[in-house]
C-alpha cells in the first residue's frame, strides 16, 4: 500500500516535544494531520468519552479527550482518509506486555486497528530511574524514534507487513549526540516480566511502584535477547509486531462447564 496521509496522535498532549519532533520528521514525506489531546492523558488506556470538544491547532486538531477519542474522532470524522495512524512520540518507554493495555500511546494504535488502519505506536526510553519524567527533553534527543518511525511508515507498509499484523509497538533509546550513527533495529516480543508493587500505608492509601526502572538503570534487566525491554537497554530500537487483543479461544475447555450451567442453576430457583 502507499501512504499519503498520516493521522498523528499521542497521550502527552499536542504541545509536547515528542509529537512535534515526530510531526516534523513525517511532514517531509507525508500530509500529516495531528489529532491529539489538549493536555497530558498518559496511562489513559482505551478510555473513551461520550463526546469531545475539538479546536483548530497549527498541527491539526486539539481534542479535549483521550488518545482513543482522538483516533475515533480522527478516523471517523476529522481525517477519514488517513492511510496510517502514528501515535507518539511518547516521552517514556512503553515496554512489556503489561503496559500494552495501560498505555494511551499503544491504545491509540489498537483503536486504529479496529478501523482496519495500520498503526505505529512510538515511545522513547528516557533513563533516570523513577524521576526520569522530570527531564526536559530536546527535539534532537528523539532522533532514533523519529528516524525509525519514518522508516517503518514507508517500509513496513510497502512490504505488506500490515497484511499480517495490526500495529507496531516501537521503543527507541534516547539519542546521544556523541553516538556514531543511528541505533540498530531489532524485531522483538513484549517482555512477559511483571513486577508491579503495592504498599498500604495503614491510613487508607495504597501506593504503586514499578521496580523495573531501577533495574534498567543498573543493567540488571530480567529479560532475554529478543524482548522489547532488553533491546532498548542494549541500545537498540525495539519493534514489536502485534495484533488486536481479545482473541477467542474455542478450546479453553469451557463447553462442559457452560452446558452444566442450566443444571446448576435449577437448584437455586
TrEMBL record:
Cited SUPFAM superfamilies: SurE-like
Keywords: Cytoplasm, Hydrolase, Metal-binding, Nucleotide-binding
Cofactor: binding details: Binds 1 divalent metal cation per subunit.
UniProt KW Nucleotide-binding keyword: yes
GO cellular component, one term: cytoplasm
Domain Survival protein SurE-like phosphatase/nucleotidase: 6-179
One MF term in the entry's GO annotations: nucleotide binding
Residues that bind a divalent metal cation: 11-12, 42, 90
Transmembrane segments: none
Keyword Hydrolase in record: yes
Gene3D superfamilies attached to this UniProt entry: Survival protein SurE-like phosphatase/nucleotidase (3.40.1210.10)
Enzyme Commission code: 3.1.3.5
Family: Belongs to the SurE nucleotidase family.
Record HAMAP family: SurE (MF_00060)
Function noted in UniProt: Nucleotidase that shows phosphatase activity on nucleoside 5'-monophosphates.
Name this polypeptide is given: 5'-nucleotidase SurE
Provenance organism: Halorubrum saccharovorum DSM 1137
